[in-house]
Design goal:
Blueprint (H helix, E strand, L loop, with lengths): L15 H6 L5 H16 L18 H7 L4 H11 L12 H14 L17 H12 L14
Helix pairs in contact: 3-5
Length: 151
């Protein structure tokens, strides 16, 4: 239904300027996608009046995409690059599940640099180092090469 014939790897725009310059969408599709993002930004999970006339807990994500007349490539981009879905099954699931994932991506955007993802600057050794610091802050003991007796 919404699957693409060929796979293209592209950089996900991380700010407004990159989005405007990106060739992932045409000009009119960028406007529809912007309207979709503005809609998501206004959603309050506690207030169904902000849900744009849809029951986001029951209707499938396909209905939300249809409301904004988004093209197939844009749907693929949003589902796989923003919501981090590994397949297209999310399209038939309740929309709020996917919207939560997209909103998390949007909230993470620009918090610690231009990317919404955190990664260690000085190599993977930074990961256990950060966990050990967090453990020490909370009064725990961080042990390497030790068997786990229980949690």
């Amino acid at each position: 239904m919404f699957s693409s014939a060929k796979t293209i790897i592209s950089k996900v725009p991380s700010n407004d300027k990159e989005a405007l310059k990106s060739d992932l969408m045409g000009l009119f599709e960028k406007k529809r996608c912007r309207n979709f993002v503005v809609f998501l930004d206004k959603i309050n999970k506690e207030d169904k009046a902000t849900w744009g006339g849809l029951d986001l807990e029951k209707c499938p994500m396909a209905d939300v995409f249809k409301k904004f007349s988004l093209e197939e490539n844009t749907i693929d981009f949003i589902g796989h690059a923003l919501a981090m879905e590994s397949d297209d099954s999310y399209i038939l699931k309740p929309a709020m599940q996917t919207i939560d994932k997209i909103m998390l991506y949007m909230e993470s955007q620009g918090k610690y640099g231009e990317s919404p993802f955190l990664y260690p600057v000085y190599g993977l050794g930074g990961l256990p180092e950060s966990f050990s610091r967090l453990c020490a802050i909370h009064g725990g003991t961080y042990m390497l090469n030790a068997k786990i007796d229980g949690i």
